């Protein structure tokens, strides 16, 4: 009897966190400021903005059965207007997750904690997480959240746009969001973890492996997608590691015919398989992390012990 192929299974989505579109609004506000030669924040007092806010309220209420959390209409990086919008949405019956932005005075993190919020987002991180100043700011946030005798968290923290593996492992986030899985696949790549002693290791940044037959080596791609490897340039032994990983998660490699045209569908020939493969990677990576809640001690924090 033929033995059935074992396939890793991804669990069902446990909760949905609705993004408010604050980054898109920030982009619109910047254009409005430039075209109308007005104040930087004037857009957030226009009829267009308030119409968006009311539409957001209606959307959340209409689909509340499927929305577990929803973000505030935060104004990047204006803490006063962000707080105003938080109060407005609450006055309309919503319970948005408040957001504190990178570069913002951390008195605002204290503000939300003191007002009893149990879930707070850290935003404005996109494009900045590799900067030392941003890493230090995040570390200071977690020092505040874990300012307890046992260094356990007082509130839950969500990281908007956190894609750095080092940051994911270093800080005890309750949740994060990232489009890295999709961007990497769009540029012809998949995430392949290191294999140590016969087991897949998710504690370090994976190889960003180009596999698409259409993009053997693209240089002008986002930093998160850059890698020095392409499947077709690997040795046979190295290719076998990629094949073993794909076999482990149950995703086909795909193949090309003698003329170099797609013959069988897989990560080599079809972007959807690359996206699914990356979702498997991130699902397993998350499962490999220590469970929340867990204590946090800053590397710069002095101890009496």
Summarize the SSE layout with pairings.
Layout lengths: L16 E2 L3 H15 L10 H16 L6 E2 L8 H13 L7 E3 L5 H8 L4 E5 L8 H14 L10 E5 L4 H6 L4 E3 L2 H7 L2 E4 L1 E3 L2 E3 L5 E4 L18 E2 L5 H14 L5 E2 L5 E3 L6 H18 L17
Parallel strand pairs: 1-2, 3-4, 4-5, 5-6, 10-11
Antiparallel strand pairs: 7-10, 8-9, 12-13
Explained architecture:
- This protein is of the alpha/beta class.
- It has two domains: 163 residues, no CATH class; 107 residues, no CATH class.
- Helices cover 36% and strands 13% of the residues.
- The protein is globular, with a radius of gyration of 22 Å.
- The relative contact order is 0.10.
- About 3% of the residues have low confidence.
Summarize the structure.
Helices cover 36% and strands 13% of the residues. The protein has 305 residues and is an alpha/beta fold.
Spell the H/E element sequence. Answer: EHHEHEHEHEHEHEEEEEHEEH
Number of domains: 2
Radius of gyration: 22 Å
How many separate helices? 9
What structural class should be given to the helix and strand makeup?
alpha/beta
């Amino acid at each position: 009897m033929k033995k059935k192929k074992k396939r890793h299974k991804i669990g069902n989505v446990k909760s949905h966190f609705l993004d408010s579109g604050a980054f898109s609004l920030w982009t619109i506000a910047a254009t409005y400021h430039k075209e109308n030669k007005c104040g930087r924040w004037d857009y957030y007092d226009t009829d267009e903005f308030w119409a968006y806010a009311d539409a957001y309220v209606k959307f959340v209420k209409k689909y509340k059965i499927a929305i577990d959390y929803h973000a505030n209409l935060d104004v990047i990086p204006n803490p006063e207007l962000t707080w105003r919008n938080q109060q407005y949405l609450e006055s309309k019956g919503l319970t948005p997750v408040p957001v504190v932005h990178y570069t913002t005075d951390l008195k605002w993190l204290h503000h939300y904690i003191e007002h009893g919020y149990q879930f707070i987002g850290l935003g404005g991180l996109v494009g900045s997480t590799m900067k030392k100043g941003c890493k230090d700011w995040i570390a200071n946030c977690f020092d505040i959240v874990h300012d307890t005798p046992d260094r356990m968290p007082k509130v839950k923290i969500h990281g908007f746009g956190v894609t750095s593996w080092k940051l994911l492992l270093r800080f005890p986030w309750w949740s994060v969001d990232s489009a890295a899985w999709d961007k990497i696949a769009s540029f012809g790549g998949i995430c392949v973890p290191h294999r140590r002693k016969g087991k897949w290791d998710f504690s370090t940044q994976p190889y960003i492996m180009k596999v698409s037959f259409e993009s053997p080596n693209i240089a002008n791609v986002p930093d998160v997608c850059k890698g020095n490897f392409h499947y077709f340039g690997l040795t046979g032994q190295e290719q076998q590691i990629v094949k073993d990983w794909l076999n482990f998660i149950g995703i086909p490699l795909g193949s090309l015919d003698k003329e170099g045209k797609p013959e069988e569908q897989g990560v080599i020939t079809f972007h959807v398989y690359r996206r699914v493969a990356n979702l498997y990677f991130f699902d397993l990576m998350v499962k490999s992390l220590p469970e929340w809640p867990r204590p946090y001690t800053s590397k710069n924090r002095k101890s009496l012990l």
